[in-house]
Amino acid sequence: MTTENTGSLGRLLAVDWGDKRIGLAVSDELGMLASPAGTIVRRAGKRAPIAELMRRADALAVTGFIFGLPIDLLGGETARSLEVREVAAKLASRQSRAVRLVDERFTTSAALRSVREQGGTTRGRKDEVDALAAAFLLEGFLRAAKQGVSIGEAVVVA
Fold first, then answer.
1. Phi/psi at 26 (nearest 5 deg)?
2. Which of 44, 49, 96, 119 shows a CA-CA span of 20 to 30 A to 10?
């Protein structure tokens, strides 16, 4: 995820981690646009779907992952943020693409508001909302990168 030589980040896959679904969004190769890219359904009591994340990344030809880090309103860790850190570290150790953790506060509420502002209802559309939340996360990352600002933290394999 560098812009040093080409000015491009390459395609990135954003991950909005949830209990029941994982929202996904992908950027274009120039790092200008973020689009919802579906969801992965999680099964209770099962391992994190890391292999499925890697399959989706391969299919979309992405160069890196942006994981939403669900921290609390004061910026502190939560049980979910610790889970996301663990999953991101496992993913980073199993493949060579860069993995970053980025504050995801308010992305879901922004996605819900966006659907409602367009005159829609969120009833029965949780998959769309989760993927849209991932797109909002990715848009924030891309905007910062465009301004030369690095946000979030890189996941480093120990």
1. -130, 145
2. 49
